[in-house]
Amino acid sequence: MSRKPFETSVAELTQSLGLLIRRVRAATDNHELSLTESMVLARLDQQGPLTTAELARIESMKPQSMGATVGALEEAGLVQRTPHPTDGRQLLVSLTTKGAEMRRAFKDAKRSWIANAISQLDKQEQETLFAAGEILRRLAEQ
Amino acid sequence: MSRKPFETSVAELTQSLGLLIRRVRAATDNHELSLTESMVLARLDQQGPLTTAELARIESMKPQSMGATVGALEEAGLVQRTPHPTDGRQLLVSLTTKGAEMRRAFKDAKRSWIANAISQLDKQEQETLFAAGEILRRLAEQ
DNA sequence: TATTGTTATACTCTATAACTATA
DNA sequence: TATAGTTATAGAGTATAACAATA
C-alpha cells in the first residue's frame, strides 16, 4: 500500500473529526442527549453519585458549565441532586430511575446512532476505532 | 488481552471524542483557527477556488453557516472573494498570500497542536489513528 | 422556478466574572 | 482562605427564515 504524506493524513483525520462533530451535534437536535449529557450519565452509572465539581474535573469543564449540563439533565428528570451527608456545601448528583433506564437503552445500542453505527462495523474496524479512542484520549489530555 | 464489553468500549470512545472536542475548542480560543476554518483553508489549498455553497456541501453545513466562516476568514485576510467569470450569482473563494502561508505553517506541524501531538506518536499509533479517521468519516457520512 | 448569497434572529455549549454559603 | 454552588453575561458555531439578485 502506498503511504500518503503525513500532512495529508492529518488533514484527512481533521476533516473526519470535523464532520463527526457536526454529525453528533445534528443528532442532538433530534431529541437525543448531547455528547456531554451522555458522558455524565455514563459516569454516574459507572462511578455512582458525584458532585458537579467532580464531574467538571473528570470532563475537563468549568464547574459553572457542568452546572448547566446537570441542570438540564435534572430538568429532564434523568438525575437528582441530594445534599451531601457531611459537607453542607456539596450536592450529590445521582441517576433517577428514568436516568438509569435511559442508560440501559443506550447500552442496547438502539437509541444512540453512534453506538448503533459502530455495532454494524466488522470486528476489526471496531478494534481499530477503540484503539484510536485511547490514543485520542491521551492527545486530548495533553 | 481481555476484551471489554462492547458498550464499555463505545462509552470510552464517546468520552475520548468529547474530551477531544473540548480540547480543540480550547485551542481555538488560543488564537488558533477553528476546526472548520482549518478545514476550509485545507480544501481551498487542495482543490483551488470554490464557492461558499460548494464549501458548505463538502463540509455538511448550511450555506449561511459557511458564509459566516468564510466571512471570518476574509476578515482575517486569509481568503478573498472574487466574482465568478460567467455566473453573476457566484463568488469564488480563494486563498490569499497570507492564507497560503498559513497553510504552509500548518503543514510544518508546528502551529497546530493536534498535528504536533500526532507527529510525536510512534508510527504504529499514527497508522491506527489515520485508519480510524477513515472509519469515522464513513460513520459521519451515514 | 432553482440557485447563490445576505441579513436577521435564535439556540446550544462553554467560558469568565461576581456572588453566597459552608468548611 | 479555599471550595461548592448559583446567577448573569458573553462568545463561538451553527441553524432557520425571509429576502434580493441572477440563472
Describe the structure.
2 copies of one chain form a homodimer. With 142 residues, chain A is mainly alpha-helical. Chain A is 66% helix and 8% strand. Chain A is built from 7 helices and 3 strands; from the N terminus they run H-H-E-H-H-E-E-H-H-H. Chain A has helices at 6-29, 35-47, 52-58, 63-75, 97-107, 113-119, 123-141; strands at residues 50-51, 79-83, 91-95. In chain A, a hairpin with a 7-residue loop joins strand 2 and strand 3 (91-95). In chain A, helix 3 packs across helix 4. Chain A is globular. At the A-B interface, helix 1, helix 2, helix 6 and helix 7 of A face helix 1, helix 2, helix 6 and helix 7 of B. Chain A binds a DNA duplex (23 and 23 nucleotides) through residues 22, 25-26, 28-29, 34, 36, 51-53, 61-65, 67-69, 84, 87-91.
Keywords:
homodimer; 142 residues; mainly alpha; Arc Repressor Mutant, subunit A; 3 domains; three-stranded antiparallel β-sheet; 7 helices; 66% helix; 8% strand; globular; DNA-binding
Quickly count the helices of chain A.
7
Number of domains of chain A: 3
Structural class designation of chain A: mainly alpha
CATH architecture of the largest domain in chain A: Orthogonal Bundle
- Greatest interface by residues involved: A-B, 54 and 53 residues
Q: Report the CATH C-level class of the largest domain in chain A.
A: Mainly Alpha
H-E order of chain A:
HHEHHEEHHH
Strand content of chain A: 5-15%
Give me the CATH superfamily of the largest domain in chain A.
Winged helix-like DNA-binding domain superfamily/Winged helix DNA-binding domain
Question: How does the major sheet of chain A shape up?
Answer: 3 strands, antiparallel
User: What is the average per-residue confidence, as pLDDT of chain A, rounded to a whole number?
Assistant: 92
Provide the CATH topology of the largest domain in chain A.
Arc Repressor Mutant, subunit A
Low-confidence runs of chain A: none
Spatial gap, N to C terminus of chain A: 32 Å
Strand order of the largest sheet of chain A: 1-3-2
Please identify the oligomeric state.
Answer: homodimer
* Shape summary of chain A: globular
Helical content of chain A stands at 55-70%
